[in-house]
Amino acid sequence: LHRDLADARVLAGFPPPPSLRGHRRLPAPAPTLRWGLIVHARLSMSDRPSQLGQRTLSAAVFVPTVLGLAWLGGLPLPALVAAIVGRGTWEFYHMAAARQHRPDTWLGVPLALAVVAWAAWRGSDGLTPLLMGALLLVMVAALRRGVEGYGSDALVTMGGIVYVGLLGSAPL
């Protein structure tokens, strides 16, 4: 048997099989979950008020502030970069924790800020020993938390340091 693409049924000329009966307490099968989620998502998004005004106001305040700090240079620029990297690293670890990873936030955020401080002070000179020391600290801390998943925990922690800390300090 071949499927006729013009026919909406599963096999051409044959009706789809009936749905199986659910649990004994359920009289009939429920509608498909995917369709229910799509309809619910559309309804909930249309019911929420728009945040365009709040976003426009914060952009009107923060964009000139960030541009002014970048134009001034000196100490305000590394302070701005450190604030962004600190918050970004924390957010990175928060998202990883939502995916069942266990990053060491209390070690990773200060090490990412140390990368920013090093980049502001020395540039990229000697950054490799700093990152190797950070890797050693992260591995020891992950092993102290237990051997269950220590490799992935250490890699996620180190990933936040390198991804957010190193790339975030590029303007310096």
Top keywords for this entry?
mainly alpha; 66% helix; flat
Q: Could you explain the architecture of this structure?
A:
- By secondary structure, this protein is an all-alpha fold.
- The protein contains six helices and no strands.
- It has helices at 33-47, 52-72, 76-98, 105-122, 127-144, 150-168.
- α4 (105-122) packs antiparallel against α5.
- The longest helix is centred in the middle third of the chain and has 23 residues, at 76-98.
- It is flat and about 75 Å long.
- The relative contact order is 0.10.
Give the arrangement of secondary structure elements:
Blueprint: H1 33-47, H2 52-72, H3 76-98, H4 105-122, H5 127-144, H6 150-168
Question: Concise description?
Answer:
With 172 residues, the chain is mainly alpha-helical. Helices cover 66% and strands 0% of the residues.
Summed up, the helix count is 6
Indicate the percent of residues in helices.
55-70%
Structural class: mainly alpha
Mean pLDDT: 81
Shape: flat
Low-pLDDT ranges: none
β-strand percent reads under 5%
The separation of the N and C termini measures 66 Å
Instruction: Specify Rg, calculated over alpha carbons.
Output: 26 Å
Order of helices and strands: HHHHHH
Described by strand count, sense and barrel closure, the largest sheet is:
none
**How many strands?**
0
